[in-house]
Specification:
666 residues; alpha+beta; Arc Repressor Mutant, subunit A; Nucleotidyltransferase, domain 5; 3-stranded antiparallel β-sheet; 22 helices; elongated
């Protein structure tokens, strides 16, 4: 009769003991002397042979020996291996409550031996109640090298792994008859068991903070504050987004900095007491964000004043107002506002609009198939007397629209960033004329002013024929070029590659400023001429001014930073050269901090002395030891708390010649 395969479970134990270090071993029972000779545990404890069947183990019994072996009966003539009986398969563990009701099964026949399971004891007594439901339903065999009795010592920490053996009873007799090993016909099947955590009474590891993440901070101002700020600025762009792009700072950090600044918090306060809100930024970085924020606010105020001025003059239109409110920098605002300034001559676009050609320009872009330029010709009117003048006026209006379009300006700036834009300086024509005059009148005496002018020309000999990429030019070179230009010795220009012009023209004609319907060839020619005129007459000068402004601003900031670094080094120079100095930071409660510096400003020793307590004499001896050890003859006392008391202590020690033979002064 075929029986279904039964599964028994054994436990592989890794014993980590300070005295013995044994390998992994299987605890099993043997059925005969031949099997016991196959595998013997190391130094097993002798037990009296038992002829009677073992009594069934009770469910709560804990005093049974960890190792149970079935001894053979009295030797008989024929030795035949007994077929081992394995324990009945345990029911699947569904819940801990069901497992608590299961009692361990043992063999009733003492002569039959096999893989007899014994109950696994809890490793730690403190986990008995918590893991009782898990341990009662598991039948394992313990390692024979580890024996536990009722009076055993401290528990051994072990890492366990469960191994299941599937026994096919149909072929047990045939297989075990020819093989002596009691493990024949067993197939190992590894089951993953969750490792027990033996780190008791240890706090969990703290998670490190990630400074690059948002950390749960808001990425926008509260609705009330955002509404108030939006009304104050009244611009078409988002303040938080613009500030984040200009400063390369996370959006949530910009939100927190703006909130703190609007609450009148100072930069030192934010750096020291609001580190988490500003992402642990240093004072210089926070100050840079503050400066950019103030520049944006000043730009918004300037835009409001410009709009009010244009409204009073009666030249403000809805389109012009939107263009002004879309400006993101002072250069863009000046570029849009410059044609409307008082005292400036009337631009070509404004003259064409005054003639009424703005409607023709709009029709050229929207409905070119219905536009007839001959209808706009007025022979007796200047600017409209011929078809060519009408087409030129439409080109000027379109060129002005292209030059003031934000999307177009953004695209041309992107093209320039990806190209090799250079700045070039050369000698001005006026300086060359003066130099020629100097050569022609060499025999005559020149006045003092002329001699100074010639000396200034010689100072800029490095920049007579100078060319450099705008991304690689040094700050001092920018300042030198600007100074030479202000003295009318140098002429400076920004060179933009021709590839930028061709790409820009193609993009405008085919994408941004493409007619919505079919247009005739003469109308497409007008648009092409308008794009080229806009780039040459309006956009290229705007790019030149923008690059020069950025380079000058960066050079001025770097010059101030260089001055700060040089001044810092000068202020930190040792006040007295050639001698060892002791610096004292006075204090009452926390003592006076000492630092002994070498003649080369190297720190030799640091310490703390308590000169204003009852142990003043002991601290004075400590001071004398340090002064004599390092041959220190100068003492520098800070002007903080307890400075006068510390000064009196040193004066008293010097008057009593405590530091003899050194001549100490402070």
């Amino acid at each position: 009769m075929m029986r279904r395969p039964r599964t028994t479970t054994t436990k592989v134990v890794e014993k980590r003991d300070d005295v013995m270090d044994s390998d992994l071993s299987f605890s099993q029972t043997v059925s005969s002397d031949e099997d016991s000779d196959e595998w013997r545990p190391a130094e097993p404890k002798p037990k009296a042979p038992s002829k009677t069947a073992r009594a069934p183990a009770a469910a709560g019994e804990k005093k049974a020996a960890a190792k149970r072996t079935a001894k053979p009966k009295e030797p008989k003539a024929p030795k035949q291996p007994k077929v081992p009986k394995v324990s009945k398969p345990r029911a699947p563990r569904k819940t801990a409550t069901e497992q608590k009701t299961q009692a361990p099964k043992v063999l009733k026949d003492s002569g039959a031996s096999g893989l007899v399971g014994t109950k696994r004891k809890n490793i730690d007594e403190g986990k008995k109640d918590d893991k009782a439901g898990k341990d009662k339903g598991v039948e394992d065999t313990d390692c024979p090298e580890v024996e536990r009795t009722e009076g055993s010592g401290p528990s051994i920490r072990m890492k366990e792994e469960r191994v299941s053996f599937i026994v096919s009873e149909a072929h047990q007799a045939n297989r075990w008859a020819g093989e002596g090993s009691s493990l024949a016909g067993l197939e190992a099947k590894k089951e993953e068991v969750e490792e027990e955590d033996f780190t008791f009474d240890e706090p969990c590891k703290k998670k490190q903070k990630t400074i690059g993440a948002c950390l749960g901070q808001p990425t926008a101002l509260p609705s009330s504050e955002a509404h108030t700020l939006r009304n104050e600025l009244n611009m078409n762009w988002d303040l938080i987004e613009l500030l984040s792009n200009l400063t390369c700072v996370e959006r949530w950090v910009c939100v927190n900095i703006i909130r703190l600044l609007r609450e009148d918090n100072t930069v030192p306060f934010m750096v020291r007491y609001r580190k988490e809100m500003i992402n642990h930024m240093d004072a210089d970085a926070v100050r840079d964000v503050q400066l950019v924020y103030e520049e944006i606010c000043s730009l918004a105020k300037k835009t409001q004043s410009v709009i009010q001025t244009l409204k009073k003059d009666g030249v403000l239109t809805a389109e012009l107002e939107q263009n002004l409110r879309s400006c993101r920098s002072a250069d863009e605002l000046d570029h849009v506002y410059s044609p409307y300034k008082k005292g400036s001559k009337l631009t070509k676009a404004r003259r064409a609009k005054a003639l009424g050609l703005e409607a023709a320009a709009s029709a050229l872009m929207d409905t070119p198939h219905t536009l007839d330029l001959r209808a706009w010709v007025k022979p007796g009117t200047e600017g409209l007397s011929s078809l060519k003048e009408v087409a030129t006026g439409v080109e000027h209006i379109l060129a002005d629209m292209i030059a003031k379009d934000p999307e177009t300006l953004t695209y041309v700036k992107t093209l320039c960033e990806n190209s090799f834009v250079t700045i070039q300086s050369s000698v001005s024509k006026s300086a060359l004329k003066e130099k020629e005059q100097e050569k022609s009148v060499q025999g005559h005496k020149t006045p003092g002013a002329q001699q100074n002018k010639n000396k200034d020309i010689d100072k800029f000999h490095l920049y007579v024929d100078f060319t450099c990429n705008i991304h690689r030019i040094q700050p001092h070179q920018t300042l030198a070029i600007n100074r030479g230009e202000s003295l009318k010795i140098l002429t400076v220009k920004v060179n933009v590659p021709d590839k930028v012009k061709s790409d820009f023209t193609r993009w405008c004609i085919n994408n941004r400023w493409r007619q919505r319907t079919f247009a005739r060839d003469e109308l497409r020619t007008i648009i092409k001429n308008a794009v080229e005129d806009s780039y040459k007459r309006l956009i290229l000068p705007f790019l030149t001014r923008s690059y020069r402004t950025k380079l000058t601003s960066a050079a001025e900031k770097e010059s101030i930073a260089m001055f700060v670094r040089n001044l810092r080094q000068r202020l930190l120079v040792c006040p007295v050269r050639g001698c060892v100095i002791m610096g004292v930071d006075p204090g009452f409660r926390h003592g006076c901090k000492l630092a002994v510096l070498s003649p080369t400003s190297q720190i030799l020793h640091t310490d703390v002395v308590y000169l204003h307590n009852s142990v003043q004499q002991k601290e004075a001896d400590k001071l004398r030891h340090l002064m004599i050890k390092y041959s220190c003859s100068r003492v520098v006392i800070g002007n903080g708390t307890a400075c006068r008391e510390t000064e009196s202590v040193f004066a008293d020690l010097i008057s009593r010649r405590c530091f003899h033979p050194l001549d100490v002064s402070y």
